[in-house]
């Protein structure tokens, strides 16, 4: 479904991605792991066109590297950025409504359904989204991206800085999304979540993928964990 | 005295509304795209000249609607084929681009319509008095201008608060990239906002032309004042631009109307200076053109974020 080949990316002169290769199949949940600053967010951003990519990115067989991000989103890629980026001056409901790509062709997810799923969002439906707590903002951005009916959703560090109870809720939401048939590329720091819900895991180091395998394989591979994950 | 106050109030509000028609577009463009459009007042001038020329064929009222649309189209094209390319090279390049554009438009206007004012006027029946107070007439046209401005602002408010496009614009004000990630065409939104802002400036020109004068210097006269409005109101704040427009509109109008000299003012405080000295003979009316800039300087010293701005300019 998604095929990334020899992907390079730069911030100014610094070379951040150094030939990233991986693929993701329909219905898969894949986690992208690695220490802080190795380029996981940059990988997702260059797939989304926010950072100019060099190399090949194919989605459903078609090249998307170099397209503007709105065109990439319309191909069926959804992106939940690490800084959440809710629209603070719009209400919770309006945030969700903006997730809809074409109001004349509403998708399978409905605003009301999202609000029913998350009573905390429903209670604040008509307040500016800026007043939400960190966990609520995270729920909102994930729901907002779902409103656009993505076929593949890339979620960047959804649990960062959140309380254990909310982390659990987010894990459940990600499972629900996967069960609804949406493929997921998850960037996570918390190994436990990633290991629980992923079919496959990728480990990044120095701007490249240094390990690819099932969660069990990663669990068994002490050397990789020591070298690239543990601090 | 009451007469002066009342008419200055009305004229000040009128001038303030006109300023807001310019500063609202400038503010929207600035806060969304980060571009301080130096050519904004040139689009105002284009509005007046377009309305003058169109009006000779279509009459006053159709021109009142067509000219701003035409200015909006010109603005959109400038964004699409000029600014958007320059944008890749950063904000300084954009600033220089709009700076150059202002001169290009000014020169083109002089080449097309000449270097002296053109007789762009409202129809005679609009010059009749709407009402007469203390023996002074207030023309129907001035009433019409106030009405158009108010309708304009209701439409602007409705667009921003109640429509989907308005929601996208407000979202893009803070998180432009995210709006794109949701699948909305942000470059096209920028083009629309730029064109819309230019159309508002054009409308200000269409109604400002007959009120002030339609001449090649009109952009250079009003341009700096509009910038003052935006800074005094607080860069990027639409409500701030509104209050600052009215404040500067009223301030300038009252200064023009008050027939007192520096000596008179000092006299009120019991101070005496030589009433025939150079400084003493400066009247408040002489100072009127300076008031926006005095306000600007004071504002930057004492409250650099402006009336309602969040960031320092
Ligand atoms: N806008 C930027 N300009 C310059 N350098 C950047 C920028 N964003 C990230 N970097 C650098 O690029 C490298 C990779 O950043 P990236 O955000 O992809 O890391 P990450 O793996 O997501 O880690 P984390 O999210 O934990 O910080 C880091 O060294 C970072 O300092
Ligand atoms: Mg990151």
UniProtKB/TrEMBL annotation, chain A:
CDD domains, per the entry: ABC_TM1139_LivF_branched
Annotated PROSITE patterns: ABC_TRANSPORTER_1, ABC_TRANSPORTER_2
MF-aspect GO terms: ATP binding; ATP hydrolysis activity; branched-chain amino acid transmembrane transporter activity
GO term, biological process aspect, one: L-amino acid transport
InterPro entries: AAA+_ATPase, ABC_transporter-like_ATP-bd, ABC_transporter-like_CS, BCAA_Transport_ATP-bd_LivF, P-loop_NTPase
Keyword Nucleotide-binding: yes
Domain ABC transporter: 2-231
Pfam families found in the cross-reference section: ABC_tran (PF00005)
Keywords attached to this entry: Amino-acid transport, ATP-binding, Nucleotide-binding, Transport
Highest taxon of the lineage: Bacteria
PANTHER family assigned: ABC TRANSPORTER ATP-BINDING PROTEIN, HIGH-AFFINITY BRANCHED-CHAIN AMINO ACID TRANSPORT ATP-BINDING PROTEIN LIVF
Recorded family membership: Belongs to the ABC transporter superfamily.
Name under which the protein is recorded: ABC transporter ATP-binding protein
């Amino acid at each position: 479904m998604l095929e990334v080949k020899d992907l390079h990316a730069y911030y100014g002169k610094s070379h951040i991605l150094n030939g990233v290769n991986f693929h993701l199949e329909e219905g898969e949940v894949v986690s992208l792991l690695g220490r802080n600053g190795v380029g996981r967010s940059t990988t997702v951003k260059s797939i989304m066109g926010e950072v100019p990519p060099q190399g090949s990115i194919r989605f459903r067989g078609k090249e998307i590297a170099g397209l503007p991000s709105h065109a990439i989103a319309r191909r069926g890629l959804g992106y939940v950025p690490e800084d959440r980026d809710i629209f603070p001056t719009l209400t919770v409901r309006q945030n969700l409504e903006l997730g809809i790509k074409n109001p004349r062709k509403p998708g399978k997810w409905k605003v009301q359904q999202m609000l029913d799923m998350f009573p905390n969002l429903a209670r604040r439906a008509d307040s500016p989204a800026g007043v939400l707590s960190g966990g609520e903002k995270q729920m909102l951005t994930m729901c907002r991206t779902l409103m656009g009916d993505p076929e593949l959703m890339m979620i960047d560090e959804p649990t960062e800085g959140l309380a254990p109870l909310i982390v659990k809720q987010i894990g459940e939401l990600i499972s629900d999304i996967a069960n609804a048939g949406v493929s997921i590329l998850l960037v996570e720091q918390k190994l436990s979540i990633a290991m629980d819900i992923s079919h496959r895991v990728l480990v990044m180091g120095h701007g490249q993928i240094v390990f690819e395998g099932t969660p069990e394989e990663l669990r068994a591979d002490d050397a990789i964990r020591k070298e690239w994950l543990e601090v | 005295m009451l007469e002066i106050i009342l008419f200055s109030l009305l004229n000040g509000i009128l001038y303030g509304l006109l300023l807001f028609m310019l500063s609202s577009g400038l503010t929207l463009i600035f806060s969304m795209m980060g571009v301080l459009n130096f050519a904004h007042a040139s689009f105002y001038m284009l509005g007046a000249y377009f309305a003058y020329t169109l009006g000779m064929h279509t009459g006053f009222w159709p021109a009142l609607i067509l000219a701003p649309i035409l200015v909006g189209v010109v603005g959109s094209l400038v964004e699409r084929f000029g600014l958007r390319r320059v944008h890749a090279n950063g904000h300084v390049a954009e600033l220089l681009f709009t700076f150059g554009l202002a001169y290009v438009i000014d020169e083109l206007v002089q080449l097309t319509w000449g270097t002296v004012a053109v007789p762009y006027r409202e129809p005679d029946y609009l010059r009749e008095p709407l009402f007469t107070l203390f023996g002074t007439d207030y023309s129907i046209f001035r009433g019409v201008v106030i009405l158009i401005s108010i309708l304009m602002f209701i439409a602007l408010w409705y667009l921003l608060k109640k429509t989907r496009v308005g929601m996208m614009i407000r979202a893009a004000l803070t998180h432009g990239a995210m709006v794109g990630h949701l699948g909305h065409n942000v470059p096209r939104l920028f083009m629309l906002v730029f064109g819309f802002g230019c159309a508002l400036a054009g409308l200000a020109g269409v109604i400002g032309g007959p009120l002030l004068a339609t001449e090649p210097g009109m952009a250079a006269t009003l341009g700096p004042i509009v910038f003052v409005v935006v800074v005094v109101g607080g860069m990027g704040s639409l409500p701030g631009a509104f209050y600052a427009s009215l404040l500067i509109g009223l301030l300038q109008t009252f200064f023009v109307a008050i027939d007192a000299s520096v000596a008179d003012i000092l006299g009120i405080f019991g101070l005496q200076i030589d009433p025939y000295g150079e400084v003493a003979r400066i009247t408040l009316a002489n100072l009127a053109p300076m008031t926006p800039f005095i306000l600007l300087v004071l504002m930057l010293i004492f409250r650099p974020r402006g009336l309602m701005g969040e960031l320092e300019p």
